[in-house]
Amino acid sequence: MNNYIPTLDELVYDLNDIGIEYIKAKEKHTKFNSLHEVYAVLIEEVDELWEEIKKKKEHRNVIDIKNEARHVAAVALAILWEFDD
Q1: Among 84, 83, 67, 85, which residue's Cα sits nearest to residue 24?
Q2: Alpha-carbon distance 85 to 4, whole Å?
Q3: How far is it, in rounded angstroms, from Cα 53 to Cα 66?
Q4: Which segment, 2-11, 20-29, 65-74, is predicted with the most confidence on average?
Q5: pLDDT band at residue 1, thresholds of 50, 70 and 90?
Q6: Which are the contacts of 70, defined by CB distance < 8 A and separation ≥ 6?
Q7: Of the candidates 35, 23, 21, the residue with the CA atom closest to the CA atom of residue 80
Q8: Cβ contacts of residue 61 below 8 Å, gap of 6+?
Q9: What number is the average pLDDT over the span 62-83?
Q10: If residue 53 lies in a helix (H) or strand (E), which one and from where to where?
């Protein structure tokens, strides 16, 4: 862990990657039917992230961890963008 603060360009790059993950998921799956359903998918993605994080340090792959974090963020975007009730 560090106190690094990303630049605006780095934030835009990461947010673009998250947006791409969201779009790929939308192309593969239809709209979520309920907040309960999207919550279940969010928990599944968090569990996958946790599986990567809890590996011993010498077996961790930072790219896999970041990819799983992007998946979590993409599902969170679905909550923001697909539900207004």
Answers
A1: 67
A2: 37
A3: 10
A4: 65-74
A5: low
A6: 14, 17, 18, 21
A7: 35
A8: 52
A9: 94
A10: helix 35-53
